[in-house]
Amino acid sequence: xxxTALHIVAHNRSASxxxxxxxxxxxxxGPATFTLLLDAFGDPAAVLTASxxxxxxxxxxTLARAILQPATTVLRQVEDALAWAARPANHILxxxxxxxxxxxxxxxxxxxxxxxxxxxxxxxxxxxxIVGSRNASVQGAINAEVFAQALSMAGLTIVSGLALGIDTAxxxxxxxxxxxxxxxxxxxxxxxxxxxNRALWQRIAAHGCVLSEYAPGTPPLAHNFPQRNRIIxxxxxxxxxxxxxxxxxxxxxxxxxxxxxxxxxxxxxSIHSALAKGCHLLLREGxxxxxxxxxxxxxxxQSPIVRMASGAGQHIAGGEHADVxxxxxxxxxPLDAIAHACARAPHELATxxxxxxxxxxxxxxxxxSYQRIVR
Length: 375
Known about the structure:
The structure is a single chain. By secondary structure, the protein is of the alpha/beta class. Helix content is 47%, strand content 12%. It has helices at residues 2-10, 15-25, 31-41, 44-48, 52-59, 61-68, 72-85, 138-153, 166-175, 198-207, 224-235, 249-259, 277-284, 293-300, 304-310, 322-328, 335-342, 346-358; strands at residues 90-94, 113-118, 127-131, 157-160, 181-184, 209-212, 238-241, 263-266, 288-289, 362-364, 370-372. It has a 9-stranded mixed sheet, with helices on both faces. Strands 10-11 form a two-stranded antiparallel sheet. Helix 13 links the parallel strand 8 (263-266) and strand 9. The longest helix is centred in the middle third of the chain and has 16 residues, at 138-153.
């Protein structure tokens, strides 16, 4: 059976990809070991054709044997992954793939292989992570959704983890914006977890991107979820923590972001709320206090991570809507006040404000007022 599986993999039309998958699926070859092997041999094909003695000098005799004599289960996983990638909108990205997110090359232990379902181009554009409590308050969920929509409208793809609570609200808000969302999951890319988010998962796969470093079929294993947090922060120019308890996985993501040179933002809350204590702790550690989407944008669009990603940060500051921007000033204003200041008919003003939102030059706040975005 093993010889048959090897024959299939060797003659697969994606033989080079099969090498990457076989090495990545070998038990004991995690991201750090994979990097060690790439540094030593250059690519997976060279690893798999190395002599046992040469390979053992890099990873030891036991692991060298496992790499050169793969178990049948490993070969089956390779075949399953290749079959998954053959379906529409599914992609496997290796670290040598030009579509591999450039920001992930710079983090510790970058994933050797990524499985993506949906719009892979989002992975290379300007991104912001939004994370927080699974047991979010009503206000926290509203804040996450409103911020995510405004920031997505301003051109930032929102990255989160598809968990209940803040993650869910952030994905929902981002899908309503122009830059959509990426869900970094701790399962295989074909596994929906939690099951309650099946409809949301389907929307993200269709209009955003579902991303995983775990092979198709991988179930929800507890130790995989903290591991995926480095990808959420690594993809992003910064991470916004909306709500978090004092001991929260969201704080791990925020601290990973700081260690990766990303911005860390936190929304303050009541001193009486347990869900605000994590945010307050981050603020004491130097996170930037956030009261509006503009607070995030002013920092993010100065970031070289964003500027290198896509030239983002350019915005409409004049042209046909210059009078509307001038009328808005620099504080939130209700629609009627803006209309009075710029003397536009209601339908013309509504169109102008929508175009400014889509261009990332203005945002509509939760109370229906509008605010100019200054970067």
